[in-house]
Amino acid sequence: MASVVFFRAVNVGGHQKFQPAQLARAMAEFGVVNIGAAGTFAVRGNVSPAKLAGEILRRLPFKPELMICPARDVLALARIGSFRHVPAGKDVSQFVSVMQKAPREPPELPIEEPAGDEWEVRLVAISGKFGLSFRRPGPKGVYPNAVVEKHLGVPATTRGWNTIATICEVLEE
After folding, report:
1. What are the tens digits of pLDDT across the range 126-151?
2. For a surface tag, which of 26, 61, 78, 134 has the fewest beta carbons within 10 Å of its beta carbon?
3. Average pLDDT, stretch 65-70?
4. 145 within 8 A of 152, measured Cβ to Cβ
5. Burial of 56 (C-beta count, 10 Å sphere; 0-12/13-18/19+)
6. Among 147, 144, 148, 126, which residue's Cα sits nearest to residue 134?
7. Residues 22, 45: one domain?
8. Burial (Cβ within 10 Å: 0-12, 13-18, ≥19) of residue 4
9. DSSP letter string, 122-136
10. Looking at residue 171, what is its pLDDT?
11. Which tens digit of pLDDT belongs to each residue from 23-63?
12. Residue 173 is assigned to a structural domain of this protein
């Protein structure tokens, strides 16, 4: 089955650094395509998540945390397009947080950090292992991943909506 691999906490501040393009080339036999520098890969080949994780771990000098999702789940998320009501403002960005597992009981949404009119992150939807949020710049510099992990209590990694769109383009080629 085709998959999407999201690394958590790599290539940030010198922590767990690696070259994603080099890893993708080394795993070409599985149809791995690198997307950006954050550790995001579209995997076109029919390989189980366990085998895929094993092959990645075998090629790296550290043990990264991986979120491996069936490609069909990411494609379905993109088709849903859950960003229906985009808040006003030219600086509003859309993000998807990929959680290690779906929360047991989804909280009441939206969740805002900080709460109220001065929010910087607004978590607006949860679909399985995916949390969708908006971010606008502010003095506290709140990032969607921190909001998801704090309020849902599960490890997550976050990508911009443009990255999700690029993953879908690669998978649909």
Report:
1. 999 999 999 999 999 999 999 999 99
2. 61
3. 96
4. no
5. buried
6. 144
7. yes
8. buried
9. EEEEEETTEEEEEE-
10. 95
11. 999 999 999 999 988 899 999 999 999 999 999 999 998 99
12. no
Is residue 70 domain-shared with residue 114, that is, in the same domain? no
For the chain, give the number of residues. 173
Q: How many CB atoms lie within 10 A of CB 161?
A: 17
Q: Is residue 168, in this structure, part of any structural domain at all? A: no
Distances (CA, A) of 154 to 40, 43, 131, 161, 166: 19, 24, 11, 20, 25
User: Strands of 65-70's sheet, edge to edge?
Assistant: 32-34, 40-43, 3-8, 65-70
155 and 91: one domain?
Answer: yes
| Domain coverage including residue 29 | 3-74
Question: Tokens at residue 90, please?
Answer: 């030219």
Task: Evaluate whether 164 touches 13 at the Cβ level (below 8 Å).
Answer: no
